Amino acid sequence: MPAKTMIQKGTTYIFPESACMLAIDTKGALVLVEQFRKPRAERTLELPGGVVREGETPQEAAIREFSEETGLNGGKAQFLFTLDLDLSTTLHRTHVFTSKTRDSDAARDAEFQVRRLQINDALRMIQDGTITHAPTVAATLALALDINQGELRGRPIY
């Protein structure tokens, strides 16, 4: 773990809005990316995502980031929820979307290593601390709840 950073009381760190995509492939697997995160000094498993650029909607950002990071086409993106990641010291809002992707879309180079996990494997990795990225955890748990209820946001499960 990197050295601790002391935060002066009353300081607020402002981050640009971000968006990420919970994509599900034709076999029902979640499409995640594995990447090295310098602040944690380790590799992480996360939803593909990133900064919402000026003039871009969060939905457009989620689709663009998914394509850049995975080399896949996510298709239509449906809004799931918005997270405020830490209101105690930061303003950092992340918008989470869901989409379907096809295996045949893997024609381009991906920015990161793509990992596909079945929902039960992802849930186990959340429980054992392997997956800790807050939007990934929240989206996976929301998906698990929807599967348990037999639907994904009012639609049949993919």
TrEMBL record:
SUPFAM superfamilies: Nudix (SSF55811). GO terms for cellular component: cytosol. One of its GO terms (biological process) is nucleoside phosphate metabolic process. This is GDP-mannose pyrophosphatase. Residues 13-139 form the Nudix hydrolase domain. It catalyses: GDP-alpha-D-mannose + H2O = alpha-D-mannose 1-phosphate + GMP + 2 H(+). Keywords: Hydrolase. One of its GO terms (molecular function) is pyrophosphatase activity. It comes from the Bacteria. CDD domains: NUDIX_ADPRase_Nudt5_UGPPase_Nudt14. Belongs to the Nudix hydrolase family. NudK subfamily. Its cofactor is Mg(2+). The keyword Hydrolase applies.
